[in-house]
Amino acid sequence: MRTDQTVLQAKRFGIFSCSQDETLQEAAKRMVEEDISALVVVDKEGYLVGIITRIDLLRALTKLEDWEKLLVKDYMNTQVVTVTPQTQLTRVAELLVDKQIHRVVVAREENGKKKPVSVVSAADLVYHMIKST
């Protein structure tokens, strides 16, 4: 991985998202269909409000029998680690390691809010480590 490479240079843009008012079953189905491990949660205008992961879904499953009827907003994480498209990939790697997380949301500031444009995962960074050798 080039140490000066930015998210903008390395990542395809586009996200898989859901509404905070969707059910956990809808979120789980989308993750399975898209073969992804998380969904970015956005409000009606498309601004970032949280993230929901497979682990969040499993947490609901282990606590309640009727997990599928619960809403995303009840299990999503609202403390989302974000970076800008200009953030260097080495900084993203540091964040993943330091915060012990698997992904960051790439967002741009718009009207004082964060508009998600991509997600960078640990798998993406490992891909770029190999690609650049």
* Class of secondary structure makeup: alpha/beta
Which CATH-level-2 architecture?
Answer: Roll
In the CATH scheme, the class would be Alpha Beta
Strand order of the largest sheet: 1-2-3
Regions with little confidence, pLDDT below 50 for 5+ residues: none
**Largest sheet data:** 3 strands, mixed
- How many DSSP-defined strands? 6
Quaternary structure classification:
single chain
Helices, by number, come to: 5
Report strand %: 15-25%
> What order do the helices and strands follow?
HEHEEHEHEEH
Counting structural domains, the number is: 1
Radius of gyration: 15 Å
The gross shape turns out to be: globular
Distance between the termini: 7 Å
The helicity comes to: 25-40%
Relevant CATH superfamily: CBS-domain
Could you tell me the mean pLDDT?
92
What is the CATH topology classification name? Answer: CBS-domain
Task: Describe what this molecule looks like in 3D.
The protein has 133 residues and is an alpha/beta fold. It has a single domain, classed as CBS-domain, CATH 3.10.580. It has helices at residues 7-10, 24-34, 54-63, 89-99, 122-131, and strands at residues 17-19, 38-42, 48-53, 82-83, 103-110, 113-121. The strands form two sheets. Strands 1-2-3 form a three-stranded mixed sheet. Strands 4-5-6 form a three-stranded mixed sheet. The longest helix is centred in the N-terminal third of the chain and has 11 residues, at 24-34. The chain is globular.
